[in-house]
């Protein structure tokens, strides 16, 4: 609550920490002094038996350590009992951004002759043009828009405010939605929310997820596409276009530069693919000739 986490995060953290505490009670642990390396290892084994992914197990341990820090801060325990075991090593998975052609196909998929299509086109444009998280998108209000400067005032993680920049296509999509789409959706509901559902209320995160899947299919894209995919695509395309890492960090609202650096790996891997595909001497000739003999 203090960090202003989303309701979904609060629910998940509460549920998963409670799951661990229930396990400890079943193991006969009655007070914090009983939380040691041995019982926590049994907990890890139990999680593995449930076939949870390593990333999911690592997230649970991170939550428990955070909970342990809270216990120390509140003077309930002298030392964090959940630091007794280390997290499993999680292989880093590079984000899978869309190509420019795939992005164009996705953005062009909505039917802009309908109110919902105008809304959906604006949603896709804003996610790609501004690099917003889905929680930031659904939290936008009419007052968030600065039409003169083509900017959005966004509330990100930890209640941190930042400015998201929008390109001309995104602003045009917002203007079209505000002029011809939102008035049809708003009905008799008094709301400042920017993006509305068919009942006139603020659009939910789940609804945006469903919207993405709808247009992924219409655009004929085979890969998995989520709102975060467009955020990944935003960052990767900026770096491919020559943007510096610090600027991308600021536009994404990352607290740490290290979080943004993963996109440099994506950009480099894409550059390698282009090199191998395009350079005449990047690979051995199919006839077996050595390039050095030319």
Description:
With 294 residues, this protein is mainly α. Among the domains are: 7-84, DNA polymerase, domain 1, CATH 1.10.150; 100-223, Intergrase catalytic core (hpI Integrase, Chain A). The protein contains twelve helices and three strands. A three-stranded antiparallel β-sheet has the order 1-2-3. Helix 5 packs antiparallel against helix 7.
> What number is the mean pLDDT?
84
> What is the structural class?
mainly alpha
Which sequence of strands runs across the widest sheet?
Answer: 1-2-3
User: What is the succession of H and E elements?
Assistant: HHHHHHEEEHHHHHH
Q: How many H/I helices?
A: 12
> From the alpha-carbon coordinates, what is the Rg to the nearest angstrom?
24 Å
Roughly what percent helix?
40-55%
CATH class of the domain at 100-223: Mainly Alpha
What is the terminal-to-terminal distance? 67 Å
The main β sheet shows up as: 3 strands, antiparallel
| CATH homologous superfamily annotation of the domain at 100-223 | Intergrase catalytic core
Overall morphology? globular
CATH architectural name of the domain at 100-223: Orthogonal Bundle
Question: Into which percentage range does the β-strand content fall?
Answer: under 5%
CATH topology of the domain at 100-223: hpI Integrase, Chain A
Strand tally: 3
Q: Uncertain spans, ≥5 residues at pLDDT below 50?
A: 286-294
């Amino acid at each position: 609550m203090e960090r202003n986490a989303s309701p979904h995060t609060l629910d998940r953290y509460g549920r998963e920490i409670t799951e661990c505490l229930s396990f400890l009670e079943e193991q006969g642990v009655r007070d914090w002094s009983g939380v040691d390396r041995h019982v926590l290892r049994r907990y890890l084994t139990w999680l593995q038996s449930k076939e949870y992914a390593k990333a999911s197990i690592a997230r649970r341990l991170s939550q428990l350590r955070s909970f342990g820090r809270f216990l120390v801060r509140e003077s309930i325990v002298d030392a964090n009992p959940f630091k007794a075991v280390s997290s499993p090593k999680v292989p880093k998975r590079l984000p899978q951004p869309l190509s420019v052609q795939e992005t164009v196909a996705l953005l062009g998929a909505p039917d802009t002759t309908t109110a919902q299509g105008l809304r959906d086109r604006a949603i896709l444009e804003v996610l790609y043009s501004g690099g917003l998280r889905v929680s930031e998108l659904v939290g936008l209000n009419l007052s968030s828009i600065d039409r003169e400067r083509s900017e959005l005032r966004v509330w990100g993680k930890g209640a941190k405010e930042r400015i998201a920049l929008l390109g001309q296509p995104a602003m045009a999509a917002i203007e079209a939605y505000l002029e011809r789409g939102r008035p049809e959706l708003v009905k008799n509901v008094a709301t400042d929310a920017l993006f509305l559902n068919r009942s006139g209320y603020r659009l939910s995160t789940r609804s945006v997820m469903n919207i993405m899947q709808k247009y992924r299919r219409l655009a004929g894209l085979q890969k998995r596409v989520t709102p975060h995919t467009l955020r990944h695509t935003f960052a990767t395309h900026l770096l491919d276009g020559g943007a510096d890492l610090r600027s991308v960090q600021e536009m994404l609202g990352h607290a740490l530069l290290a979080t943004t650096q993963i996109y440099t790996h994506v950009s480099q891997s894409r550059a390698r693919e282009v090199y191998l595909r395009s350079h005449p001497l990047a690979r051995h000739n199919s006839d077996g000739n050595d390039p050095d003999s030319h």
